[in-house]
Amino acid sequence: MAPTDITKPAPPQHIAIIMDGNGRWAKKRGLPRTAGHAAGAESFRRIANYCRTLGVRYLTVYAFSTENWKRSSEEVAGIMKLLRRYLEEALQDMEKNRVCFRFFGDLSKLSPDLQKLCHDAEKRSEDYDVQVNFCLNYGGRDEIVQAARRFAEDVAAGKHNPEDLTEDLLSGYLYSADVPDPELIIRPSGEKRTSNFLLWQSAYSEYVFMNVLWPDFSPSDLDEAIEEYHRRNRRFGGT
Known about the structure:
Layout: E1 14-18, H1 22-28, H2 33-54, E2 58-65, H3 73-97, E3 99-104, H4 112-125, E4 130-138, H5 140-156, H6 167-171, E5 184-187, E6 206-209, H7 219-231
Parallel strand pairs: 1-2, 1-5, 2-4, 3-4, 5-6
Helix pairs in contact: 1-2, 2-3, 3-4
C-alpha cells in the first residue's frame, strides 16, 4: 500500500529507533564490524527518507551511546568516520532535503572537527520542519543527571527555588527540550531491552521489538512496526 493512501492511519509524529545489529550483520557475512556500521548508515538514510515521505515529524536514532566508548578503538574510529562523512554530505544536501538536525548527548567528547560539523548542521537547518535527532555520546541516565545539575546551577544562581521543580520544568533541561516524547520506539536485532535510551521520554512510548538486524531494516519493516503501534490501546494510565 502506498504511503499516501488515504485509508492508511497517520504514522506517529515521533518515532525513535535503536539502530542495533550492525556487528552481528557483519559477522554473519565474515566482514569486519566497520562494514556492518557502513551498511547500517545506508539503512538509516533509507529509513530517514521513508519517514519523510510518510509524514513523520520527528525521527530520533541511537547513533552512539556513552557505553560505546568501551568498544575497540578501531571500531569507534570507524563509526566516527562514517558520521563525519554523513554530516559532510548532509550539509551539502541541506537545502534540498529541508531536514532539521539536532544532537542529543555530550558532544564535548568528540573531536573538534566533528563537533563543528554537528553545530554547523544544527545552525544551518534550525528553521526546517522535519527533524532528525541523533543521540550521540548519549545515555538516558547521564541526560537526567546533566539536567539535574543544570537545574541545581540555576537554583544556586537564584533563577529557581528547589520547590519550583516539576516534570515539565525538568523536561526543559533535557537534550530533548521542546521535542515531544516519542510515541513509538523500535528496536530491531531481536534484543528486548531499552539500553539506556530516552529513559525519561519513553515513559508512555510503545515499544516494538523486531527480529531483523538494522542493516536489513526496510521500509516494509517500518510499516509493520507502525501497524503494530496502531493495534495498541494507549490508555496513559486510564481505563
